[in-house]
């Protein structure tokens, strides 16, 4: 069970990593763009704050450029997972990078067929997008459950990371489907830690303690 925070916001990363329960940080080009800072400088800084993996996505659209970018990311952060977009060029790049021993993730996976091809190319992880499938009135859970079952049936070592996860209940739904990893925002992890009864209970304990004057 691997948990990641899906952000490039350093304040959120620092706080979330201090919880000691996350395996690292996932990013994508939209998430990085939001920070309005140099890509390399930002990734190096995230890597300094993160004892675990730092996931970084290529911008290139052909396999040669993707492979070059992957090698460059590896220099920025040695614990990098290189995210490649699903498609022929991404598959080509994944086949080459897996032979070089660079850990990869196939992102933007929307079918079991895509996931199987990515696994065959040697990626370590595939990212199906739960929320974005639900947004277009289909079932992200059905897709992700199908990938998990197919990988298990075929004995594939590729891990499934649920992406585009937008609430604490969805995290649990994904874990119950058997995904190996989940990435989601700071606010979802923080919400998962909270319960109003916990707050009420703690307030009561502290009040009783104070009133007893011990
Ligand atoms: C994973 O890294 C994905 O890029 C991310 O989870 C997408 O989430 P969103 O659909 O909420 O943008």
UniProtKB/TrEMBL annotation:
InterPro entries: Aldolase_TIM, TAL/FSA, Transaldolase_3B/F6P_aldolase, Transaldolase_AS, TSA/FSA_arc/bac. SUPFAM superfamilies: Aldolase (SSF51569). Keywords: Cytoplasm, Schiff base. Its main location: cytoplasm. It comes from the Bacteria. It is found in: Cytoplasm. PANTHER family: TRANSALDOLASE (PTHR10683). This is Transaldolase. The gene is tal.
């Amino acid at each position: 069970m691997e948990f990641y925070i899906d952000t490039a916001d350093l304040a959120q990363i620092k706080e979330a990593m201090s919880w000691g329960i996350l395996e690292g940080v996932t990013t994508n080009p939209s998430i990085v763009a939001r920070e309005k800072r140099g890509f390399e400088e930002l990734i190096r800084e995230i890597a300094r704050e993160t004892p675990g993996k730092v996931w970084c996505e290529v911008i290139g659209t052909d396999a040669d450029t993707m492979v070059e970018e992957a090698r460059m990311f590896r220099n920025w952060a040695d614990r990098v997972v290189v995210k490649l977009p699903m498609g022929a060029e991404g598959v080509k790049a994944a086949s080459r990078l897996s032979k070089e021993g660079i850990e990869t993730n196939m992102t933007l996976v929307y079918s079991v067929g895509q996931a199987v091809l990515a696994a065959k190319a040697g990626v370590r992880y595939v990212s199906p997008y739960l929320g974005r499938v639900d947004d277009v009135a289909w079932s992200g859970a059905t897709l992700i459950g199908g990938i998990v079952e197919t990988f298990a049936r075929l004995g594939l070592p590729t891990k499934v990371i649920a992406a585009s996860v937008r609430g604490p209940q969805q995290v649990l739904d994904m874990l119950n489907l058997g995904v190996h990893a989940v990435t989601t925002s700071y606010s979802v992890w923080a919400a998962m830690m909270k319960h109003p009864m916990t707050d009420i209970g703690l307030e009561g304990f502290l009040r009783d303690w104070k009133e007893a004057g011990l």
